[in-house]
Write a structure and sequence with these properties.
By secondary structure, this protein is α/β, with parallel strands linked by helices. It is built from 10 helices and 8 strands. Helix 1 packs parallel to helix 2 and helix 6 packs across helix 7. The chain is globular, with a radius of gyration of 18 Å. The mean pLDDT is 97. The chain binds adenosine monophosphate and manganese (II) ion (MN) (3 copies).
């Protein structure tokens, strides 16, 4: 059943363990009731929710893969690499993710100081109220605080006005290297996938370098169908997958019923001429 090409797989979403608003248990239930047939939880830089996710998927009768979304700095931009089907107890991967999470609190305090300069007080403490995992304070938590305090109407407006490059609350940060992220995943028997390539502001040459280096490090997949892509980007990255001989992944990037446009499982199917990532992961599906 799972080797089929037409499958409602959702291999990208977030829980309260990173910057989602639902627990792993509620996400598993929502995935099942939305008709998802294969599910992975991919919290940012963190595998702490995976044992709960596996148990919840099992109790829902939902096929499941381990997952994580690793923050990487490449050519001065933040790139996200999704790992799927790895051993969640792998010590090198856990240490690598711990190091990647390490600078978040310091960055958050600098973001707060930066927001203070434009008259927004106590943003660190405000954002913390939305954080469940103290090692994983993210820009999303600041966005929720600025909506709650009436500075903006919705989180996307906060990102546009405050949390992106050149804006008052933005603090640059150096994440993991592409080499490290891909190596942690593949050494833990997983498949590395470039997340939502359409979101990066790369020149064609930089994007070519990303895919080339990713392949050279052992990366094998790319998200083609994601909640972050337009229809044109589905077509563009289907071609890129073929050009670089990468398998294709599909995931909503669901964070919250109040903030995400794409619900779990609510995506077009993968184009039929691509190899789905789950064909390489058949023996790791739980
Ligand atoms: P961080 O890892 O702390 O830099 O936060 C990155 C997260 O912010 C992403 O995973 C998204 O959930 C969220 N995000 C980034 N850009 C936007 C945006 N333009 N609108 C809404 N959420 C965004
Ligand atoms: Mn996120
Ligand atoms: Mn991402
Ligand atoms: Mn994501």
């Amino acid at each position: 059943m799972i080797s089929q090409k037409i499958l409602n797989a959702d291999l990208h979403c977030h829980s309260v363990v990173s910057d989602g608003t639902l627990t792993p248990e509620v996400l598993a239930e929502r995935a099942k009731s939305n008709g998802v047939e294969l599910w992975a939880l991919t919290d940012h830089d963190e595998v702490g929710g995976l044992h709960r996710a596996a148990a919840a998927a099992k109790s829902q009768g939902l096929a499941y893969l381990t997952g994580a979304e690793i923050s990487v700095t490449f050519a001065g931009e933040t790139v996200h690499i999704v790992g799927l089907g790895f051993d969640p107890d792998d010590a090198r991967m856990q240490q690598g993710l711990r190091n990647t999470r390490g600078g978040r609190e310091h960055r958050a305090k600098e973001m707060s100081a930066s927001l203070e300069k434009v008259g927004i007080k106590n943003a660190f403490e405000g954002a913390l109220k939305f954080v469940s995992n103290p090692e994983l304070i993210s820009r999303t938590h600041f966005a929720r605080f600025l909506v709650e305090s009436g500075v903006c109407r919705e989180t996307s407006e906060v990102f546009r006005k405050y949390l992106t490059e050149g804006k008052p609350g933005y603090v640059p940060h150096r994440w993991a290297t592409l080499h490290d992220a891909v190596t942690w995943i593949t050494n833990a028997s997983g498949i590395a996938v470039i997340a939502h390539p359409g979101r990066y502001k790369f020149t064609p040459n930089e994007e070519y370098a990303l895919f080339t280096e990713f392949k050279a490090h052992g990366g094998q997949g790319v998200e083609v169908i994601t909640g972050s892509h337009t229809k044109q980007e589905y077509l563009k990255y289907a071609e890129t997958a073929k050009e670089f001989s990468l398998v294709a992944s599909r995931g909503s990037d669901f964070h919250s019923p109040d903030e995400s446009y794409t619900d779990l499982g609510a995506l077009p199917f993968l184009p039929g001429d691509l190899t789905p990532v789950w064909e390489l992961l058949a023996d790791r599906i739980q």
